[in-house]
Amino acid sequence: MNDAKLEIIIQNFITIMPLFQKKLMKPKCHVNPDNLNHSHMQILVVLKDYGKSSISDVAKKLFISTPNMTKLLNKLIDDGYVERLPDQKDRRIINIDLTTKGKEHLDNAFEDLVRTFKERLSSIPDNQLDKLNNSLENLKEVLTEISSED
């Protein structure tokens, strides 16, 4: 593929990301009483997807430094969303996992997100929704083909 085509694709990505946030997510974003930020939510999602994990594994998946991870985790632990668990095989390793409160918070956030998406997308004509769905399916297919470390 030539550089000009790649630059157009890159520009489209750069344009779409903020539009996606602005048009679909930001204004009606999930209200959380404990003021969890995006990084906190990412940690919760990783724990939901992968289950009990070491702190360093979660940090690597999210590209978060260990000191920052510790600060983020302390809030999640203090607020009751995550718990520390000693590793059964190696006492030097501390694992973390979602608590019931953390799982419920993610479920509520997901429900709010679905509701917000439905509200935002309901005004779009069916033919446009079909185009959007096809585009998203294509994007998903292409992105899954890109090699990654995960």
UniProtKB/TrEMBL annotation:
Please list the GO terms describing molecular function: DNA binding; DNA-binding transcription factor activity
Which Pfam families does this entry report, sorted A to Z? Answer: MarR_2
Q: Which domain of life is it from?
A: Bacteria
Matching entries from InterPro entries are given as: HTH_MarR-typ (IPR000835), Tscrpt_reg_MarR-type_CS (IPR023187), WH-like_DNA-bd_sf (IPR036388), WH_DNA-bd_sf (IPR036390)
The reply on keyword Transcription regulation is yes
The alphabetical list of record keywords is: DNA-binding, Transcription, Transcription regulation
Residue ranges annotated for the HTH marR-type domain, each copy included = 1-141
PANTHER family, A to Z: TRANSCRIPTIONAL REGULATOR, MARR, TRANSCRIPTIONAL REPRESSOR OF EMRAB OPERON
Protein's UniProt name? MarR family transcriptional regulator
What is the protein's species of origin? Romboutsia weinsteinii
The lineage is: Bacteria, Bacillati, Bacillota, Clostridia, Peptostreptococcales
